[in-house]
Write a structure and sequence with these properties.
Blueprint (H helix, E strand, L loop, with lengths): L1 E5 L6 H14 L8 H9 L8 E9 L2 E11 L4 E9 L11 H13 L5 E7 L1 E2 L5 E2 L2 H9 L3 E3 L4 E3 L9 E9 L6 E3 H20 L5 H19 L7 E5 L2 H4 L11 H9 L3 H18 L5 H16 L2 H16 L6
Parallel strand pairs: 4-5
Antiparallel strand pairs: 1-2, 2-3, 3-4, 5-10, 6-7, 8-10, 8-12, 9-10, 11-12
Length: about 325
Amino acid sequence: MELKQIDRTDRGKNRLYEALNIYRETILPEAQNPERQILYWIEHSKETLADEFRCFSLLSGNAVVGYLQYSFFREEKLFFFEYLCIRDLKRVGLVPSKAIKTIENFLAQNYPAGFTIVFEVAKTRSKDLKWESDKKLISYFRRLGFRTVDFPYHYPILQSYEGEVSYPADLMVMLPDQQVIVRASEMRTILRCIYFKHYLRWDRPFLEPDRFVQREGLINDLYSGQVKSINDNDSFGTRGDNKRSKIKRFMNVQPAIGQLFDRVFGPKFFRVLVVIGVLLLTQWALGSGLQLIPFVLAVALIYCLTEDTEASKKLFMAVLSRLRLGRPRSS
């Protein structure tokens, strides 16, 4: 099982759209973000922000079996799993915990310990139009160590401003150090991050100023309504599998050698090897060891061109300027 990040929309398109197909099939329509918005945030996921937004496909061999989308709020050490969709056509029911173990290893190897994970499980309407918890999905996540918070949580409407302004959901958490109680301050932090750092920030690029003010008012009202019943001395219990909740998790902090190699050298390192091979062959043909310095400079310049980023362009121009300055004057 492998977790593979999606950070561009112009590469690995089959993998991207297979993951989004799973998203469409497993998430309730009222809980879905428009895909054009997901694609926008994928393209902007590398921007320098205090918080992170990431998307992944979950692979079993060459088959895409899941889609994970999360935000990480660095200051609060809080993950909000917006969508965690898992499917395996070879099995009946939900994929076993191997998929979650893959996600667990990734988080342990890339983030400091002591974080909280939170996500929503949207409630569904029964035949008599009453809201009911998704018992099957909640039971599955409880077996994986997540716990349901005893709090009447609502998430804001996503697609439009018509009808209800929010929908009920069960809030599920995995707390650090095997905690099973959410304190009042922690609940406020969770709500603030979800409503303002996720939902409101997500909507900003897609709304005109007047519509954004309307959206901000909706989020403010929802947040105020949720926190007004929280007193400073309150605490909120959680329900789950007590035995599984006590299992120590996120202990595998050592990534595999292949992952380290990819992290250090990047997926484009093969291009560098090809360039080095070509230039070494050229140097051998010239038969001069003095070509080592221009060889190194040439590799750097060509690598900058293949990277085609703002930083690599600046480096390219800086190296060129040094070469011009170093030319001997003509007599």
